[in-house]
């Protein structure tokens, strides 16, 4: 399967006390995304609070997401872990569950050297037969690769895509204009979405899409399908303030606060992440309602 378009970095819904994954709410969130036209679903990523999930919970979450999607959208779970063995385990499980691909962040406590990163990805690439999306997030991993080094990852078996969450638009531009023949780049930094799409990104892995999924899809269609930059700019004018606010606070907490504000709660965040302040939720809710009204008038 070729991946493209808007892939939502899906929230993980929890029960009110945060002790368990809320499968019923998860199915609801997946149905919201599919109904809005989202092209793919990425569970157990950063927005999905993977760092607070046990290995068993991550496996359960992937299985439940694939079942809820029921073939209506590509499911590309994040399977990165602190060891190669666990990354292989989670990736094999995802493939067996029916995932269209996997996204992998490298171990993020002790930054890998480049040859260690290659060996890590090669082990996963040999263990599965579905595409790998390399999750480039140097702010969390301490591993900052040049465009040439990122492009070289495409030479590893099954490493076909990059989700770029570096925040470095010069690097993203180089990837899109100089290295698109070696590896396919998705944007992963909210406030750079419009710039990346207009420069040629295949799509975006986007947490904000939990909040405004159909408008996120309409931005992609305007820019990448229709080539209508005027419409794209008009949509971006209402999406950028939402993205900017999300990036100004704890991202996961802000996404869940935004869902609360629009009546689509996915439960609490898990500690140590705490809810955002009520005044931020109110400001976010106002921006989201404005965006929804804008979309209704399109």
Plain-language structure description:
The model has no long low-confidence stretch (mean pLDDT 98). The longest helix is centred in the C-terminal third of the chain and has 20 residues. The protein has one domain: TIM Barrel, CATH 3.20.20. It is built from twelve helices and eight strands. The chain has 298 residues and is an alpha/beta fold. It has an eight-stranded parallel β-sheet with strand order 3-2-1-8-7-6-5-4. Helices cover 49% and strands 11% of the residues.
Order of helices and strands: EHEHEHEHEHHEHEHEHHHH
The low-pLDDT segments are none
User: In angstroms, what is the radius of gyration?
Assistant: 18 Å
CATH C-level label: Alpha Beta
Number of helical elements: 12
Number of strands: 8
Summing up helix and strand content along with how strands pair, one would put the structural category as alpha/beta
**Major β-sheet strand ordering:** 3-2-1-8-7-6-5-4
From the N-terminal CA to the C-terminal CA, the straight-line distance is 32 Å
What general outline do the C-alpha atoms trace? globular
Give average pLDDT, whole number.
Answer: 98
DSSP strand content:
5-15%
